[in-house]
Amino acid sequence: MDLPAHGGSGGGPRTNLIECAGAVLQAGRAFAPLAGIVAHSFGGPVVALAWRHGLRADGVVMLAPPLSVRDISLPVGDWLGLPRHVSDLMMERLARRLQVTWDELRTDRLVAEMEVPLLVVHDEEDKLVPWSQGAAVARAARDGRLRTTAGLGHRDLLVEPTVVADVLAVVTAASLARRIA
Structural domain boundaries of the chain? Predict the structure, then answer.
């Protein structure tokens, strides 16, 4: 699905983590039971937050998930030429407006609550979200596993055949396990 303000969603020019998590939770409820959820990049913390609020599936796959939405947002400000104190102030104001702390929205803390298998696939050459962040997310999960790729960067892992096969295997195995139980 396209998140609000992404792709063809028609959701306006901007969104935030909480609004996106609400949309994912709503979609998850509409199409339940879900065999699996596959999320890329920002979608990782979105799914993890939606999970905290009741999203459920038999298995979850996160491709290149950031450890902290705040930490990946600051380099965007750097890229745009914003002074760091301006980016910091913007993130502080956003947290106040959303009535959250960035610490409570860390992906590793959120996935620690998941009771299902979590596969994290992350490329060691990812320039947008460092591999170490995906590794930390996988370590934090109760049933987490990390698959490291090389040479695919942040986006090419989405279409790499062996990654696609691993994603399908996780979703299929988790769904089969639920049906047998």
Answer: 17-67+106-180
With tokens 């199409």, the residue in question is: 31
Report the first-to-last Cα separation within the chain, whole angstroms: 29
Amino acid at 127: K
In 3-state terms, what secondary structure has residue 171?
helix
SS3 for 33? coil
Residues present in the chain in total: 181
38 has which bridge partners?
61
Provide the total of helices (H) and of strands (E) in the chain, helices listed first: 7, 4
Q: Which residue has the higher pLDDT, 110 or 3?
A: 110
Residue 85 has pLDDT above 90, yes or no: no
Residues 156/64, Cβ–Cβ less than 8 Å = no
Pick the CATH number of 17-67+106-180 from 3.40.50.1580, 3.40.50.11270, 3.40.50.1820, 3.50.50.60: 3.40.50.1820
Exposure of 106 in the CB half-sphere (CA atoms within 13 A): 14
Q: Could you tell me the two tokens for 39?
A: 């999320």
What order do you get walking across the sheet with 60-63 strand by strand? 37-40, 60-63, 118-123, 144-149
Amino acid, single-letter form, for residue 77: G
pTM: 0.85
